[in-house]
């Protein structure tokens, strides 16, 4: 993924990304955030967003909550189309493969998310959409 990276068009998210990079990942002390770069499914451009994560062993887990909106976020649609992603955690950047989880694994990881950030349960309650849970496994 050697192309220019385009940050989220959402002004709040773009500012969060800027602060994340400037602080070496400490934009929101006490929160576990990462930067996820996906390839745009229509544009082919590299798109970067900031997400909360939980760890599951060596894997990173994120959710497509979209703050409880009734549609999946663009970053999720992008990684479904191309699961090869780049992740930045703190100042470390690595390539990964993303996959949506289901069944017992999804339920277990969702509970971990809600335990870490209770607002995620409100997001789930505010939509009829099945909120995806995504596992990112480093490839290097």
TrEMBL record:
InterPro entries: F420H2_quin_Rdtase (IPR004378), Split_barrel_FMN-bd (IPR012349). Pfam families: F420H2_quin_red. GO terms for molecular function: coenzyme F420 binding; oxidoreductase activity. GO terms for cellular component: plasma membrane. It catalyses: oxidized coenzyme F420-(gamma-L-Glu)(n) + a quinol + H(+) = reduced coenzyme F420-(gamma-L-Glu)(n) + a quinone. Belongs to the F420H(2)-dependent quinone reductase family. This is Deazaflavin-dependent oxidoreductase, nitroreductase family. It comes from Micromonospora echinaurantiaca.
